[in-house]
Protein backbone atom coordinates (compact mmCIF):
# COMPACT_ATOMS: atom_id res chain seq x y z
CA UNK A 1 0.00 0.00 0.00
CA UNK A 2 2.74 2.36 0.97
CA UNK A 3 4.61 1.46 -2.19
CA UNK A 4 1.50 2.08 -4.25
CA UNK A 5 1.08 5.48 -2.60
CA UNK A 6 4.67 6.39 -3.44
CA UNK A 7 4.22 5.42 -7.07
CA UNK A 8 1.00 7.40 -7.16
CA UNK A 9 2.69 10.45 -5.63
CA UNK A 10 5.55 10.26 -8.13
CA UNK A 11 2.96 10.05 -10.90
CA UNK A 12 1.15 13.10 -9.51
CA UNK A 13 4.40 15.02 -9.13
CA UNK A 14 5.42 14.27 -12.71
CA UNK A 15 2.16 15.32 -14.27
CA UNK A 16 1.95 18.44 -12.11
CA UNK A 17 5.32 19.57 -13.47
CA UNK A 18 5.04 18.40 -17.06
CA UNK A 19 5.82 21.93 -18.16
CA UNK A 20 8.75 23.40 -16.26
CA UNK A 21 9.55 27.01 -17.14
CA UNK A 22 12.95 27.75 -15.61
CA UNK A 23 13.47 31.27 -16.94
CA UNK A 24 12.11 33.84 -16.26
CA UNK A 25 11.73 32.82 -12.64
CA UNK A 26 8.49 34.81 -12.06
CA UNK A 27 5.19 34.73 -13.97
CA UNK A 28 4.81 38.51 -13.59
CA UNK A 29 7.87 40.61 -14.12
CA UNK A 30 9.26 43.79 -15.61
CA UNK A 31 11.88 43.46 -18.32
CA UNK A 32 13.70 46.50 -19.59
CA UNK A 33 14.82 45.06 -22.92
CA UNK A 34 13.57 44.77 -26.47
CA UNK A 35 13.18 41.00 -26.22
CA UNK A 36 12.88 38.16 -23.73
CA UNK A 37 13.56 34.45 -23.96
CA UNK A 38 11.71 31.66 -22.20
CA UNK A 39 13.69 28.62 -21.21
CA UNK A 40 12.65 25.32 -19.67
CA UNK A 41 11.72 21.73 -20.32
CA UNK A 42 8.66 19.63 -21.10
CA UNK A 43 7.81 16.04 -20.33
CA UNK A 44 9.08 13.53 -22.85
CA UNK A 45 7.45 13.86 -26.30
CA UNK A 46 4.95 16.48 -25.28
CA UNK A 47 4.26 19.36 -27.59
CA UNK A 48 4.47 22.93 -26.44
CA UNK A 49 2.78 26.03 -27.80
CA UNK A 50 3.28 29.62 -26.73
CA UNK A 51 0.39 31.89 -27.73
CA UNK A 52 -0.89 28.98 -29.84
CA UNK A 53 2.29 28.76 -31.92
CA UNK A 54 4.28 25.52 -31.76
CA UNK A 55 7.70 25.78 -30.15
CA UNK A 56 10.77 23.78 -31.12
CA UNK A 57 11.64 21.09 -28.59
CA UNK A 58 15.35 20.33 -28.61
CA UNK A 59 17.15 17.12 -27.76
CA UNK A 60 16.80 16.68 -23.99
CA UNK A 61 13.16 17.99 -24.07
CA UNK A 62 14.43 21.53 -23.80
CA UNK A 63 12.94 24.70 -25.18
CA UNK A 64 14.49 28.17 -25.52
CA UNK A 65 12.32 30.65 -27.37
CA UNK A 66 12.85 34.38 -27.93
CA UNK A 67 10.08 36.99 -28.29
CA UNK A 68 10.19 40.69 -29.01
CA UNK A 69 8.54 42.83 -26.34
CA UNK A 70 6.27 45.78 -27.02
CA UNK A 71 6.07 48.62 -24.54
CA UNK A 72 3.54 47.90 -21.80
CA UNK A 73 2.09 44.50 -21.00
CA UNK A 74 2.99 41.39 -23.01
CA UNK A 75 1.06 38.20 -22.35
CA UNK A 76 2.42 34.73 -23.08
CA UNK A 77 0.19 31.68 -22.73
CA UNK A 78 1.97 28.34 -22.56
CA UNK A 79 0.20 25.13 -23.38
CA UNK A 80 1.65 21.64 -23.03
CA UNK A 81 -0.34 18.43 -22.74
CA UNK A 82 -3.44 20.27 -21.53
CA UNK A 83 -1.52 22.27 -18.95
CA UNK A 84 -1.70 26.07 -19.25
CA UNK A 85 0.58 28.71 -17.75
CA UNK A 86 0.35 32.45 -18.29
CA UNK A 87 3.22 34.98 -18.06
CA UNK A 88 2.73 38.72 -17.98
CA UNK A 89 5.85 40.68 -18.88
CA UNK A 90 5.88 44.47 -18.57
CA UNK A 91 8.30 46.42 -20.73
CA UNK A 92 8.53 49.98 -19.38
CA UNK A 93 8.24 52.85 -21.87
CA UNK A 94 11.66 53.73 -23.28
CA UNK A 95 12.77 56.97 -21.65
CA UNK A 96 14.31 59.52 -23.95
CA UNK A 97 17.76 60.00 -22.52
CA UNK A 98 18.44 63.62 -21.65
CA UNK A 99 20.90 65.06 -24.12
CA UNK A 100 22.57 67.02 -21.33
CA UNK A 101 26.09 65.64 -21.20
CA UNK A 102 28.29 67.14 -18.58
CA UNK A 103 31.18 69.19 -19.91
CA UNK A 104 34.74 69.19 -18.64
CA UNK A 105 35.43 72.15 -16.38
CA UNK A 106 38.97 73.19 -15.65
CA UNK A 107 39.53 74.95 -12.34
CA UNK A 108 40.18 78.66 -13.08
CA UNK A 109 43.50 80.55 -12.86
CA UNK A 110 45.75 77.53 -12.59
CA UNK A 111 44.06 76.56 -9.37
CA UNK A 112 44.17 73.00 -8.24
CA UNK A 113 42.09 71.15 -5.72
CA UNK A 114 43.96 69.43 -2.96
CA UNK A 115 42.22 66.51 -1.33
CA UNK A 116 42.74 63.08 0.18
CA UNK A 117 41.24 59.71 -0.58
CA UNK A 118 38.89 58.40 2.08
CA UNK A 119 38.41 54.76 1.09
CA UNK A 120 40.75 51.86 1.86
CA UNK A 121 40.99 51.21 -1.87
CA UNK A 122 40.29 54.13 -4.22
CA UNK A 123 40.14 53.31 -7.92
CA UNK A 124 41.99 55.68 -10.25
CA UNK A 125 40.56 55.44 -13.76
CA UNK A 126 41.58 56.22 -17.32
CA UNK A 127 38.41 58.23 -18.02
CA UNK A 128 35.62 59.77 -15.95
CA UNK A 129 32.99 57.10 -15.28
CA UNK A 130 32.45 54.07 -13.06
CA UNK A 131 33.05 51.62 -15.89
CA UNK A 132 36.28 53.17 -17.13
CA UNK A 133 39.43 51.12 -16.88
CA UNK A 134 41.15 51.06 -13.47
CA UNK A 135 44.73 52.25 -13.65
CA UNK A 136 45.71 51.86 -10.01
CA UNK A 137 44.28 51.64 -6.51
CA UNK A 138 45.30 54.24 -3.94
CA UNK A 139 45.32 53.66 -0.21
CA UNK A 140 43.35 55.79 2.26
CA UNK A 141 44.70 59.30 2.94
CA UNK A 142 46.64 59.61 -0.31
CA UNK A 143 47.08 63.28 -1.24
CA UNK A 144 45.81 64.03 -4.69
CA UNK A 145 45.70 67.19 -6.76
CA UNK A 146 42.98 67.82 -9.31
CA UNK A 147 42.97 70.33 -12.17
CA UNK A 148 39.34 69.99 -13.28
CA UNK A 149 36.23 67.90 -13.15
CA UNK A 150 33.65 66.15 -15.28
CA UNK A 151 30.60 64.03 -14.54
CA UNK A 152 31.37 63.64 -10.83
CA UNK A 153 35.02 62.78 -11.45
CA UNK A 154 38.15 64.80 -10.70
CA UNK A 155 40.90 65.01 -13.29
CA UNK A 156 44.22 64.59 -11.53
CA UNK A 157 47.38 66.61 -11.98
CA UNK A 158 50.08 64.36 -13.44
CA UNK A 159 52.64 66.73 -15.03
CA UNK A 160 52.59 64.60 -18.19
CA UNK A 161 49.87 63.76 -20.67
CA UNK A 162 48.54 60.82 -18.69
CA UNK A 163 44.84 61.18 -17.90
CA UNK A 164 43.85 59.93 -14.48
CA UNK A 165 40.45 60.37 -12.84
CA UNK A 166 39.01 59.75 -9.39
CA UNK A 167 35.37 59.81 -8.31
CA UNK A 168 34.50 62.90 -6.24
CA UNK A 169 32.73 60.57 -3.81
CA UNK A 170 36.02 58.86 -2.98
CA UNK A 171 37.69 61.99 -1.60
CA UNK A 172 37.03 64.55 1.12
CA UNK A 173 38.12 67.94 2.51
CA UNK A 174 38.52 69.62 -0.87
CA UNK A 175 40.67 72.72 -0.70
CA UNK A 176 41.75 75.13 -3.41
CA UNK A 177 45.45 75.63 -3.84
CA UNK A 178 47.88 76.60 -6.60
CA UNK A 179 50.14 74.54 -8.79
CA UNK A 180 53.15 76.33 -7.36
CA UNK A 181 52.23 75.07 -3.92
CA UNK A 182 52.06 71.48 -4.94
CA UNK A 183 53.64 69.32 -2.26
CA UNK A 184 55.72 66.39 -3.34
CA UNK A 185 56.34 63.12 -1.59
CA UNK A 186 59.87 62.55 -0.41
CA UNK A 187 61.72 59.31 -1.04
CA UNK A 188 63.20 58.28 2.30
CA UNK A 189 64.80 55.12 1.00
CA UNK A 190 64.61 52.64 -1.82
CA UNK A 191 65.83 49.15 -2.53
CA UNK A 192 65.78 46.31 -5.00
CA UNK A 193 65.88 42.67 -3.96
CA UNK A 194 64.65 39.13 -4.63
CA UNK A 195 63.39 36.15 -2.73
CA UNK A 196 62.63 32.67 -4.07
CA UNK A 197 59.39 33.78 -5.72
CA UNK A 198 59.54 37.48 -6.57
CA UNK A 199 61.76 40.37 -7.63
CA UNK A 200 61.01 43.62 -5.78
CA UNK A 201 61.39 47.37 -6.26
CA UNK A 202 60.50 49.26 -3.10
CA UNK A 203 60.27 52.87 -1.96
CA UNK A 204 59.68 54.31 1.46
CA UNK A 205 57.85 57.60 0.82
CA UNK A 206 56.84 60.47 3.07
CA UNK A 207 53.30 59.99 1.72
CA UNK A 208 51.66 57.72 -0.86
CA UNK A 209 51.46 59.10 -4.40
CA UNK A 210 49.78 58.22 -7.66
CA UNK A 211 51.42 55.46 -9.65
CA UNK A 212 50.82 53.64 -12.90
CA UNK A 213 52.20 50.42 -14.33
CA UNK A 214 51.54 50.00 -18.03
CA UNK A 215 52.99 48.15 -20.97
CA UNK A 216 55.01 50.35 -23.32
CA UNK A 217 56.60 48.53 -26.23
CA UNK A 218 58.80 45.78 -24.88
CA UNK A 219 58.74 47.29 -21.42
CA UNK A 220 56.55 47.61 -18.43
CA UNK A 221 56.64 51.27 -17.45
CA UNK A 222 56.28 52.02 -13.76
CA UNK A 223 55.69 55.70 -12.94
CA UNK A 224 55.54 57.37 -9.55
CA UNK A 225 53.94 60.82 -9.81
CA UNK A 226 54.95 63.85 -7.74
CA UNK A 227 58.01 62.65 -5.89
CA UNK A 228 60.97 64.62 -4.61
CA UNK A 229 63.97 62.69 -5.83
CA UNK A 230 66.85 63.92 -3.68
CA UNK A 231 68.87 60.77 -4.17
CA UNK A 232 68.90 61.24 -7.96
CA UNK A 233 68.12 57.57 -8.34
CA UNK A 234 70.44 56.06 -10.85
CA UNK A 235 69.76 53.04 -13.02
CA UNK A 236 73.28 51.75 -12.42
CA UNK A 237 72.43 51.35 -8.78
CA UNK A 238 69.55 49.11 -9.74
CA UNK A 239 71.18 46.96 -12.36
CA UNK A 240 71.37 43.86 -10.35
CA UNK A 241 70.59 40.23 -11.14
CA UNK A 242 66.86 40.63 -10.76
CA UNK A 243 66.45 43.62 -13.11
CA UNK A 244 69.55 43.57 -15.31
CA UNK A 245 68.16 45.89 -18.01
CA UNK A 246 66.30 48.38 -15.87
CA UNK A 247 66.15 51.93 -17.22
CA UNK A 248 65.30 54.91 -15.03
CA UNK A 249 64.03 58.29 -16.14
CA UNK A 250 64.43 60.85 -13.41
CA UNK A 251 63.22 64.09 -14.86
CA UNK A 252 60.58 66.44 -13.52
CA UNK A 253 58.24 65.46 -10.77
CA UNK A 254 57.98 61.84 -11.75
CA UNK A 255 60.23 58.80 -11.69
CA UNK A 256 59.82 56.28 -14.47
CA UNK A 257 61.17 52.75 -14.46
CA UNK A 258 61.35 50.71 -17.64
CA UNK A 259 61.23 47.05 -16.74
CA UNK A 260 61.61 44.25 -19.31
CA UNK A 261 58.16 42.88 -20.00
CA UNK A 262 58.86 39.56 -21.70
CA UNK A 263 59.67 38.03 -18.32
CA UNK A 264 56.25 38.95 -17.08
CA UNK A 265 54.72 36.06 -15.14
CA UNK A 266 52.47 38.42 -13.28
CA UNK A 267 53.23 41.49 -11.20
CA UNK A 268 51.67 43.54 -8.45
CA UNK A 269 52.04 47.19 -7.45
CA UNK A 270 50.61 48.94 -4.44
CA UNK A 271 51.16 50.20 -0.93
CA UNK A 272 51.80 48.76 2.46
CA UNK A 273 51.44 51.92 4.56
CA UNK A 274 53.93 54.40 3.09
CA UNK A 275 55.93 51.69 1.43
CA UNK A 276 55.36 51.41 -2.31
CA UNK A 277 56.06 47.91 -3.63
CA UNK A 278 56.40 46.64 -7.16
CA UNK A 279 56.87 42.90 -7.24
CA UNK A 280 57.22 40.61 -10.19
CA UNK A 281 56.68 36.86 -10.16
CA UNK A 282 59.81 34.92 -11.07
CA UNK A 283 59.68 32.54 -14.02
CA UNK A 284 59.29 28.83 -13.23
CA UNK A 285 62.44 26.72 -13.45
CA UNK A 286 62.13 24.57 -16.58
CA UNK A 287 62.33 20.81 -16.22
CA UNK A 288 63.04 18.42 -19.09
CA UNK A 289 60.94 15.60 -17.64
CA UNK A 290 57.57 17.30 -17.36
CA UNK A 291 56.35 20.24 -19.46
CA UNK A 292 54.60 22.09 -16.60
CA UNK A 293 57.02 21.24 -13.79
CA UNK A 294 57.41 24.07 -11.26
CA UNK A 295 54.54 26.05 -12.79
CA UNK A 296 51.98 27.11 -10.17
CA UNK A 297 48.49 27.24 -11.64
CA UNK A 298 45.31 28.34 -9.86
CA UNK A 299 42.08 26.87 -11.23
CA UNK A 300 38.96 28.71 -10.18
CA UNK A 301 35.62 26.92 -10.59
CA UNK A 302 33.15 29.84 -10.92
CA UNK A 303 30.41 30.43 -8.29
CA UNK A 304 29.59 27.70 -5.71
CA UNK A 305 27.41 27.22 -2.64
CA UNK A 306 24.61 29.78 -2.60
CA UNK A 307 26.01 31.33 -5.81
CA UNK A 308 24.46 29.07 -8.43
CA UNK A 309 25.75 30.91 -11.49
CA UNK A 310 23.29 30.47 -14.33
CA UNK A 311 20.60 27.80 -14.18
CA UNK A 312 20.04 25.70 -17.30
CA UNK A 313 16.73 24.70 -18.93
CA UNK A 314 16.58 21.44 -16.92
CA UNK A 315 17.68 23.21 -13.71
CA UNK A 316 21.28 22.08 -13.71
CA UNK A 317 23.43 24.77 -12.10
CA UNK A 318 26.44 26.35 -13.73
CA UNK A 319 28.45 26.04 -10.48
CA UNK A 320 28.34 22.22 -10.70
CA UNK A 321 29.40 22.11 -14.36
CA UNK A 322 32.25 24.53 -13.60
CA UNK A 323 33.52 22.37 -10.73
CA UNK A 324 33.39 19.21 -12.83
CA UNK A 325 35.40 20.78 -15.68
CA UNK A 326 37.83 22.33 -13.19
CA UNK A 327 38.60 18.95 -11.61
CA UNK A 328 39.33 17.45 -15.02
CA UNK A 329 41.55 20.38 -15.97
CA UNK A 330 43.43 20.15 -12.67
CA UNK A 331 44.05 16.43 -13.16
CA UNK A 332 45.53 16.96 -16.63
CA UNK A 333 47.72 19.85 -15.48
CA UNK A 334 49.00 17.82 -12.51
CA UNK A 335 49.86 14.89 -14.82
CA UNK A 336 51.98 17.35 -16.79
CA UNK A 337 53.84 18.42 -13.68
CA UNK A 338 52.05 21.62 -12.61
CA UNK A 339 51.41 22.56 -8.99
CA UNK A 340 47.68 23.10 -9.12
CA UNK A 341 45.68 25.01 -6.56
CA UNK A 342 41.88 24.97 -6.79
CA UNK A 343 39.98 27.91 -5.26
CA UNK A 344 37.20 25.52 -4.23
CA UNK A 345 37.02 21.73 -4.04
CA UNK A 346 33.36 21.38 -3.17
CA UNK A 347 30.01 23.12 -3.52
CA UNK A 348 30.98 25.98 -1.20
CA UNK A 349 30.74 29.77 -1.13
CA UNK A 350 34.08 31.48 -1.83
CA UNK A 351 34.37 35.29 -2.18
CA UNK A 352 35.81 36.78 -5.35
CA UNK A 353 38.73 38.57 -3.64
CA UNK A 354 39.31 35.47 -1.52
CA UNK A 355 39.87 33.48 -4.73
CA UNK A 356 42.45 36.00 -5.95
CA UNK A 357 44.17 36.23 -2.55
CA UNK A 358 44.42 32.45 -2.24
CA UNK A 359 45.90 32.19 -5.74
CA UNK A 360 48.53 34.72 -4.74
CA UNK A 361 49.27 33.01 -1.43
CA UNK A 362 49.97 29.93 -3.52
CA UNK A 363 52.44 31.93 -5.63
CA UNK A 364 50.51 31.19 -8.81
CA UNK A 365 51.96 32.06 -12.21
CA UNK A 366 48.64 31.53 -13.98
CA UNK A 367 45.01 31.85 -12.91
CA UNK A 368 42.17 30.32 -14.95
CA UNK A 369 38.55 30.84 -13.94
CA UNK A 370 36.08 28.32 -15.41
CA UNK A 371 32.52 29.35 -16.24
CA UNK A 372 29.59 28.51 -18.51
CA UNK A 373 27.87 31.47 -20.14
CA UNK A 374 24.26 32.71 -20.16
CA UNK A 375 22.61 35.56 -22.01
CA UNK A 376 20.67 38.43 -20.46
CA UNK A 377 17.27 39.52 -21.82
CA UNK A 378 17.45 41.49 -25.05
CA UNK A 379 19.72 38.98 -26.82
CA UNK A 380 18.78 35.86 -28.74
CA UNK A 381 20.34 32.58 -27.51
CA UNK A 382 20.04 31.08 -31.00
CA UNK A 383 22.30 33.79 -32.42
CA UNK A 384 24.71 34.30 -29.56
CA UNK A 385 26.50 31.20 -28.32
CA UNK A 386 29.87 29.48 -28.40
CA UNK A 387 33.07 29.96 -26.46
CA UNK A 388 34.64 33.18 -25.19
CA UNK A 389 37.65 34.13 -23.10
CA UNK A 390 38.11 37.26 -20.99
CA UNK A 391 41.17 39.04 -19.66
CA UNK A 392 41.66 42.50 -18.16
CA UNK A 393 45.37 43.16 -18.24
CA UNK A 394 47.61 43.28 -21.25
CA UNK A 395 49.85 40.62 -19.71
CA UNK A 396 47.06 38.03 -20.02
CA UNK A 397 46.00 38.83 -23.58
CA UNK A 398 48.30 36.29 -25.22
CA UNK A 399 47.10 33.40 -23.01
CA UNK A 400 43.44 34.41 -23.47
CA UNK A 401 43.82 34.48 -27.25
CA UNK A 402 45.53 31.10 -27.31
CA UNK A 403 42.84 29.44 -25.17
CA UNK A 404 40.07 31.02 -27.25
CA UNK A 405 41.57 30.05 -30.60
CA UNK A 406 42.22 26.44 -29.53
CA UNK A 407 38.78 25.96 -27.95
CA UNK A 408 37.11 27.04 -31.18
CA UNK A 409 39.19 24.68 -33.32
CA UNK A 410 39.33 21.73 -30.87
CA UNK A 411 35.68 21.78 -29.82
CA UNK A 412 34.02 23.04 -33.00
CA UNK A 413 32.29 25.74 -30.99
CA UNK A 414 31.28 29.11 -32.40
CA UNK A 415 33.81 31.84 -31.69
CA UNK A 416 32.13 34.22 -29.24
CA UNK A 417 35.26 36.33 -28.94
CA UNK A 418 38.31 37.04 -26.79
CA UNK A 419 37.93 40.35 -25.05
CA UNK A 420 38.59 42.55 -22.05
CA UNK A 421 36.16 41.77 -19.23
CA UNK A 422 35.84 43.78 -16.04
CA UNK A 423 35.64 40.82 -13.66
CA UNK A 424 37.17 40.96 -10.19
CA UNK A 425 38.99 37.65 -10.62
CA UNK A 426 40.84 38.72 -13.79
CA UNK A 427 41.54 42.35 -12.85
CA UNK A 428 44.59 41.34 -10.90
CA UNK A 429 47.91 41.66 -12.70
CA UNK A 430 49.36 38.82 -10.69
CA UNK A 431 49.09 36.02 -11.67
CA UNK A 432 48.46 36.07 -15.44
CA UNK A 433 44.65 35.78 -15.23
CA UNK A 434 41.93 34.72 -17.67
CA UNK A 435 38.27 33.74 -17.42
CA UNK A 436 36.94 31.07 -19.78
CA UNK A 437 33.25 31.01 -20.70
CA UNK A 438 33.38 27.47 -22.03
CA UNK A 439 29.97 27.40 -23.78
CA UNK A 440 26.41 28.63 -23.24
CA UNK A 441 23.84 27.26 -20.78
CA UNK A 442 21.19 29.14 -22.80
CA UNK A 443 21.85 27.36 -26.12
CA UNK A 444 20.35 23.83 -25.96
CA UNK A 445 23.00 21.88 -27.93
CA UNK A 446 25.81 23.42 -25.87
CA UNK A 447 23.90 22.96 -22.61
CA UNK A 448 23.57 19.24 -23.35
CA UNK A 449 27.27 18.99 -24.26
CA UNK A 450 28.34 20.83 -21.10
CA UNK A 451 26.88 17.98 -19.05
CA UNK A 452 28.69 15.35 -21.09
CA UNK A 453 31.72 13.80 -19.44
CA UNK A 454 33.68 13.29 -22.67
CA UNK A 455 33.00 16.87 -23.77
CA UNK A 456 34.16 18.21 -20.40
CA UNK A 457 37.37 16.17 -20.67
CA UNK A 458 38.02 17.44 -24.18
CA UNK A 459 37.42 21.03 -23.03
CA UNK A 460 39.85 20.51 -20.16
CA UNK A 461 42.46 19.02 -22.48
CA UNK A 462 42.17 21.91 -24.92
CA UNK A 463 42.65 24.49 -22.13
CA UNK A 464 45.57 22.48 -20.69
CA UNK A 465 47.23 22.30 -24.13
CA UNK A 466 46.95 26.08 -24.50
CA UNK A 467 48.43 26.67 -21.05
CA UNK A 468 51.27 24.30 -21.88
CA UNK A 469 52.20 25.94 -25.18
CA UNK A 470 51.97 29.38 -23.54
CA UNK A 471 54.32 28.29 -20.75
CA UNK A 472 56.76 26.61 -23.11
CA UNK A 473 57.05 29.53 -25.52
CA UNK A 474 57.50 31.90 -22.60
CA UNK A 475 60.18 29.81 -20.91
CA UNK A 476 62.02 29.64 -24.23
CA UNK A 477 61.83 33.42 -24.53
CA UNK A 478 63.24 33.78 -21.01
ZN1 LIG B 1 29.60 32.11 -14.33
What does this structure look like?
The structure is a single chain. It contains 8 helices and 31 strands. It is an alpha+beta fold. The chain folds into 4 domains: 2-91, Immunoglobulin-like, CATH 2.60.40.10; 105-181, SH3 Domains (SH3 type barrels, Roll), CATH 2.30.30; 185-281, Immunoglobulin-like (Sandwich), CATH 2.60.40.3470; 296-477, Zn-dependent exopeptidases (Aminopeptidase, 3-Layer(aba) Sandwich). The strands form 7 sheets. Strands 9, 10, 13, 14, 15 and 16 form a 6-stranded antiparallel β-sheet that branches. It has a 6-stranded mixed β-sheet with strand order 27-26-28-31-29-30. Strands 2-8-7-4-5 form a 5-stranded mixed β-sheet, with no helix packed on it. Strand 29 (387-391), helix 5 and strand 30 (415-420) form a beta-alpha-beta unit. The model is unreliable at 9-15 (pLDDT under 50).
Amino acid sequence: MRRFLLVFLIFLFNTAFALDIVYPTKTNCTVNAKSIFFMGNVKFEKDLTINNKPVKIWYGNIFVETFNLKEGENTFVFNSDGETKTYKIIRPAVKKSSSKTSEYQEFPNNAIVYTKTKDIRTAVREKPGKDARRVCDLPKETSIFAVGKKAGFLKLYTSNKKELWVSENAVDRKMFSFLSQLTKSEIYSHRIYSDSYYDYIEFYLSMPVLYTVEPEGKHLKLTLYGVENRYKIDAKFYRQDCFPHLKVNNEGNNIEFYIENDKNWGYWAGYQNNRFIFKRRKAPEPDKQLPLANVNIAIDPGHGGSQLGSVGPTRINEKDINLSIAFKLSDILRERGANVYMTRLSDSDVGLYERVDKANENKSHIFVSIHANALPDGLNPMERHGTSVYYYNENAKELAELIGKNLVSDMGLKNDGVRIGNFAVVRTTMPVSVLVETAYMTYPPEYVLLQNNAFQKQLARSIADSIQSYVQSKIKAD
